[in-house]
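Dear colleagues,

As part of the handover before I leave the project, I'm documenting each prediction I ran so the next person doesn't have to rerun anything. This entry is a single chain, and its sequence is reproduced below.
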Amino acid sequence: MISIIIPTLDEERALPATLDVALAQHGEFEVIVVDGGSIDATTAIVKERAAHDLRLRLLEIERGRAVQLNAGAENAIGEWLLFLHADTLLPDGGLERIASLPQTIRAGCFRHRFNGTGAMLRTLSWFHNQRFRVTRVAYGDQGLFMRRTTFEQAGGFPDMPIMEDYALVRALRRQGKIITVPEAALTSGRRWRQHGMFKVTAVNKLMILGYHLGVSLERLAAFYRK
């Protein structure tokens, strides 16, 4: 059993396609959408689909990505936990790939690819994948998956206002190697298109630098949202 956990907050535009692709996967799985107080049609979309597909569930809790992700994991029944952004599409056969992994594999991610065209986005995805080969640091938009026992041993997502996925991946690296599978998850390039390729990339790098320099997470979160 694989549990797909999707945190949401006002994702009515992106979520339908993500659910369509997730529910079209093969194998034994469940999809848990954990909403943090959406004021758009996000929860209505999930409720309507859940009424026709028992593999889909909705949790409504307080806002906070780490809180939402941990709540999804706590309510999941799968041996594997797959944490998926609301605007990231699973590859065909993605769950079958995870289910076929040997027992020695504890955690991993999909290859990165933007859902769209354009030389700049393709180049950025290439750099993402090369960076992972060197650092073994995955980001949330690659679809992070791990065995439940591994997740619990790592302490789950730390209660942080931002960069909770980065902190968890660093904890996972201390437990062992994180692998990448050949299939690519398609993630939205909307932030890069809206704010500009170089600006978003620079902000991401500054966030990581600030994290390692000990800048308070509250200041980093305020800087990122601004």
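The chain has one domain: 2-189. The first strand starts at residue 2 and ends at 8.

All the best with the project,
I.
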